[in-house]
Amino acid sequence: RCTNNVEKGKGFALKWAFDKIFKMDKNYDAFCIFDADNLVSPNFLMEMNKQMCRGYRVIQGYIDSKNPFDSWMTASYSIAFWTANRLYQLPRYYLGMSCGLCGTGFCVESEIIKEKGWNATCLTEDLEFTMKLALDGIYVGWAHDATVYDEKPLTLKQSWNQRIRWMQEYAECTGRFFGKLMRKAIKEK
User: pTM, whole model, 2 decimals?
Assistant: First the structure.
């Protein structure tokens, strides 16, 4: 058991875990990242493997709600995720564009983490990692049939508190990377 009152959160926990894993004598092709309360479709690893065999080094799975009918709030989240999966992620994938990471239900080639380390430690580590991948020219693939069921907040108050924290981190993270990403976009079209 490890307790650290300074480096808190999922990003730091992943950094700590990867540091330990890479000191072991075992080698892994890739890692899948989940939240502790997620449920995963039985075909998840097979679908991720298909995409890795197609050359993708990072792949996001289909995010669905574990509790879509618990309240109007969970139903709203579910509709938002279904829409994002179908109208944002899938078209970007079909157009050969990089998809976005959603914080859970994604797979990353171990060599990426070995080479760069896991330094996405802010509260929105998924956005931070996505931006770092974009700067390095690494596309995020999409596995439409690899489903991860994520539990959504039941009440407006729970959702509000969660979203306020995330929006503050989104703004901070965007501030750190926006200029670099714009320069890369202009320079490399």
Answer: 0.86
CA distance 34 to 158: 21
Cα–Cα distance for residue pair 22/114, rounded to 1 Å: 8
10-38 core/surface letters (b: 16 or more CB in 10 A; e: else) = bbbbbbeebeeeeeeeeeeebbbbbeeeb
- Nearest partner of 11 among 77, 89, 100, 104, judged by Cα: 104
Q: Give the integer Cα–Cα distance in Å for 64 and 13.
A: 24
Which DSSP helix (H) or strand (E) runs through 147? strand 140-150
Q: pLDDT per residue over 71-115, tens digit each?
A: 998 999 899 999 999 999 999 999 999 999 988 999 999 999 988
DSSP 3-state of 40: strand
Strands 58-65 and 140-150: parallel
Which contiguous run of DSSP H or E holds residue 120? none
- Token match 């950094």: residue? 15
